[in-house]
Automatic annotation (TrEMBL):
SMART domains: GAF (SM00065), PP2C_SIG (SM00331)
Every GAF domain range: 62-213
GO molecular function, one term: phosphatase activity
InterPro entries: Bact_Sigma-Reg, GAF, GAF-like_dom_sf, PPM-type-like_dom_sf, PPM-type_phosphatase-like_dom
Descriptive protein name: SpoIIE family protein phosphatase
Record's keyword terms, sorted: Hydrolase
Highest taxon of source: Bacteria
Region described as Disordered: 1-24
Domain PPM-type phosphatase: 240-472
Length: 474
């Protein structure tokens, strides 16, 4: 915040024969009292004006209304003839925002001079990117001060100070007087700086309000997206003959990239209706690389395409192959990929057919032998290679057998020491739960509790966690 150096007429010293009070026969005591009284009146006037400005800062919700007062207040508290507020726009434009002059005819000349100065400044910055133009604010200020002084003329006494927001100069507040005896005392300069600081606060508050509204709008959109995504996940597990199901998805953010689904395989092909407990059902789990809204959008796309593909009645491997070919172009452009494990269960034979696209292999606990096996086949990520081939596999399930589908949010969960929960701990916790509980819901709850205990109280896991437990009834 600097004063613009301009040639000024030297102030003439008062005539020693003149009395301060304006009366030739006034006593020195009376003259002193008049001087003190005048100073008190000036001080009260300044306090009232600044108090009004503070009230406006607290009360006005419209920035333009507040800025309208700035040149007026600055000229009033300094007994100047006028004031001008010039702001630097983010697009590199230098604009005369507000102007106040007590003498309206003279004010038109001042406006023309200042508009000419700002146009020339904008033209000189037009070849620079907006970010670079703002980065060179010190040079811009020096050039602007010079242009303003040149166009207003040497007979005008000017003081200019910066509008500083986070150490970045966002504009200039100028106050000027035509009085050749007018002096920019330290008190007047401080008053102008004070008003400039109030202006900076108002501008920053307005920008924060705009950002807050954008955030609130984004939050509402995220809430809607999270609600839609939640509705796309199964509201409840289907009734399938001979098995019990439990499933839960906990997203790290409001919108996640984990996916699980139960799809009636025979629906629409002349077979039993999808609600029939004897119909074949697919149990699917997947994970989109990444988190947040982009992952959620891809998850939604995957769900729709997979459900359409299941209706064709192909084998699990062929379904994954077709899904990969259809989604390849979109996923390649997004630089995101999907891991997916697709299985179909036949209640009549208790055979689980499956194929894997690089997802974490589900764990099968066999009740008769108290052993755990991984259900896996070779296959690449969905969207990585359009020509990827997938493999089919089957497993015969028996009463008491339990299959656990999960995403890597479980195995990648880390404690405060950076240690991962990993598949070995998950397998151990899964086996213990299968021995202790017959209800898949209790097994699911135990596994989530075990992971949360491992992470530690107060620690937040940064990845989505999804679990599906399928148990063959005894």
């Amino acid at each position: 915040m600097t004063a613009v150096p301009l040639p000024r007429q030297p102030a003439q010293p008062p005539d020693r024969n003149d009395d301060v009070s304006g009366s030739s026969d006034a006593t020195p005591v009376f003259a002193l009292k008049e001087l003190v009284s005048r100073l008190n009146r000036e001080q009260h006037k300044i306090q009232d004006l600044l108090s009004s400005l503070g009230f406006a800062l607290r009360s006005f919700s419209n920035l333009n209304q507040f800025l309208e007062l700035i040149p007026l207040m600055a000229s009033r508290v300094t007994d100047a003839d006028g004031g001008a507020l010039i702001l630097f726009r983010p697009n590199g434009q230098v604009k005369l925002e507000r102007l106040h002059c007590q003498d309206m005819p003279w004010g038109q000349d001042v406006r023309k001079a200042l508009e000419t100065a700002t146009r020339q400044m904008t033209a000189s910055l037009s070849g620079l990117p907006p970010g670079e133009a703002l980065a060179r604010s010190s040079q811009v200020v020096t050039m602007l001060d010079t242009q303003v002084a040149r166009h207003l003329g040497t007979e005008i006494q000017i003081f200019g100070t910066g509008i500083l927001i986070k150490n970045s100069e966002r504009g200039r507040l100028y106050v000027f007087s035509r009085d050749p005896d007018y002096e920019w005392t330290e008190t007047r300069q401080k008053l102008v700086r004070l008003i400039a600081d109030q202006t900076a606060v108002a501008i920053e508050n307005d920008e924060l309000t705009v950002e807050l509204r954008k955030k609130e709008r984004l939050d509402r959109e995220l809430e809607i997206g999270a609600d839609i995504q939640l509705r796309l996940l199964p509201r409840q597990c289907p009734t399938i003959q001979g098995i019990e199901l439990a499933a839960l998805c906990k997203t790290a953010n409001r919108v996640g990239g984990d996916y699980y689904d139960f799809i009636p395989v025979d629906y629409g092909r002349g077979h039993p209706h999808s609600d029939s407990s004897t119909a074949r059902w697919s149990v699917t789990i997947g994970d989109v690389m990444g988190k947040g809204v982009p992952a959620g959008l891809i998850m939604t796309m995957t769900r729709g395409m997979l459900r359409a593909e299941v209706l064709n009645g192909h084998s699990p491997a062929r379904i994954l192959q077709h899904l990969n070919q259809v989604m390849y172009a979109d996923l390649e452009n997004s630089n995101r990929f999907v891991t997916l494990f697709y299985s179909e269960y036949d209640p009549q034979t208790r055979i689980l057919s499956y194929s894997n696209a690089a997802h974490n292999p589900p764990l099968l606990w066999q009740a008769s032998t108290d052993t755990i096996n991984r259900l896996d086949t070779l296959g690449m990520l969905i969207g990585l290679d359009a020509e990827t081939q997938y493999q089919d596999a089957t497993v015969q399930l028996h009463p008491g057998d339990t299959v656990m589908y999960y995403t890597d949010g479980f195995t990648d969960a880390a404690n405060q020491h950076g240690q991962r929960f990993d598949e070995e701990n998950l397998s151990r916790a899964f086996r213990w739960a299968c021995l202790q509980y017959d209800d898949p819901q209790l097994i699911l709850k135990h596994l989530f509790d075990r992971v949360h205990q491992f992470i530690g109280v107060g620690n937040i896991h940064a990845d989505d966690m999804t679990l599906v437990v399928m148990r063959v009834q005894p």
